[in-house]
Amino acid sequence: MFKKTMNDYKELIKSFTKEDYENARVNLHLHTNYSDGRSDFVDVMKLNYNYLAISDHNTVQGYLENEIGKNIIPAVEFDVWFGYVFLHLLLNLLNMA
Q1: Phi/psi zone of residue 15: left (φ > 0), alpha (ψ -120 to 50 degrees), beta?
Q2: CA–CA distance, 32 with 1 (Å, rounded to integer)
Q3: Do the Cβ atoms of 58 and 39 come closer than 8 Å?
């Protein structure tokens, strides 16, 4: 099975246009019921996007328990503190090999 490298994902994301986002061909920030989303991980992967990143909060369990489609860009969203400020840090391009 072909595994994309970090550079492959970076180049892919750089190729997305404003129209890709506006016309719902790409979504790089989706959640599933592994965190605060309502939908099952597999159901989210089946959404009608050319490319999507499932970025559940503080977990990659969905990636570990499911076979990932070729249109999926691995991601996670971490809860972090920066001093006294609570932030969500979105990380795409995870190496899930």
Answers
A1: alpha
A2: 25
A3: no
Hey, which bits of 1-97 come out as E strands?
Answer: 26-30, 51-54, 75-82, 85-92
- Global pTM reads 0.81
pLDDT digits (tens, 9 = 90+) for 2-47: 456 767 888 899 999 999 999 999 999 999 999 999 999 999 999 9
Cβ–Cβ < 8 Å for 81, 87: yes
Phi-psi region at 46: left, alpha or beta (left = phi > 0; alpha = psi -120 to 50): alpha
CB contact at 8 A, 77 and 56: yes
* Nearest alpha-carbon partner for 77 in 60, 52, 61: 60
Tokens of 31: 């959640």
